[in-house]
Write a sequence for this structure.
């Protein structure tokens, strides 16, 4: 079972990755 701490660790990382992807795709093109 995944612990809440693990989930909390993943959520911001996924959001950050998503934000970077959107930012770089928008800035690169």
């Amino acid at each position: 079972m995944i612990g809440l701490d693990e989930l909390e660790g993943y959520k911001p990382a996924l959001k950050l990755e998503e934000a970077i992807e959107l930012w770089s795709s928008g800035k690169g093109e």
